[in-house]
Amino acid sequence: MNTEKDFTPDRQRDEPLSIWAGNSPTSTLHFFETRVNGLLRTTGLLLIHRSVRASDEIPTGQAKLLGRMAQQRPDATAHGKVAILRGRRLSVYQAGPDGGLVRALCGNATAAAIHAHGSASGQLELVGPENVGITAEFHRSGDSVSQVWRIPDIIVTEFEWNRRRCAHMSGLNRYVLVFDGLPDGIDAETCRRQLSAGHANTKLAVFGDDAAPNHVSFFNATGRHGAAPMTGLASLAVAAEALPHLAACIDGRGITYQTASGREICRLPDVSRGKDGRLRIGMPDVDAFVAPPMSEVLQ
Fold this sequence. Notes:
This protein has five helices and 19 strands. By secondary structure, the protein is α+β, with helices and mostly antiparallel strands. The protein folds into two domains: about 25-150 and about 285-295, Roll (Diaminopimelate Epimerase, Chain A, domain 1); about 155-270, Roll (Diaminopimelate Epimerase, Chain A, domain 1), CATH 3.10.310. The chain is globular and about 55 Å long.
């Protein structure tokens, strides 16, 4: 397994751990981070099980502990991810404001797991919130990780809400797209909750809150996303093929979004269909780093 410099938060380093590790006595817990062009993107925890018999479900009594630990790097554009790697199977959870965990898919957490896995190429099976069969094919060169995700399908359903054109997307993370900005008096979290249909980790992408037609703001359960999430870009790339008005907004220019360091532009990933009928989506490349283990994780 490849590890890099130790960026474990000081209050966690050398602190003895005694949390759940399934049936494996040799699991290890690590902090991870990802970067793009040297800029910090995503941080979280990576729990690596050496035994394929270990479970990737997190007991309720341990979820908030891991969730609170995963949110200790608020300097990142996204934080609070808990990834569990067992052989070639990866499960990712997102910590909410209260530390509770819900299943999610995350390209950055997947990149960290790939880095820790150590292989130069291969594939991981991803367990998403809808339990559909998603495969991440990867290539790794040093810290740089590239991925192509194979997805059975992404369903796009249009609807209207508060006189706004919207679309619901399922197949990756659950996304809701809202066009023409948010209605007056309704903030992003209220909108996200109203349109979540009971799914706690529904994510929101809002167009039209800026003069540029291709500007988008991403939100999740912890607030505004400080960058463009990989699954969000993938969802928009698929939606642009199904929604002519979205394709017209983007018009080959990609999307713009606001970060703490300024406005950035990002092209949407390429989407195709393989011979097996599944979507193939090329995720953006990212540099991944995994800290040395804090300690062995004991059952």
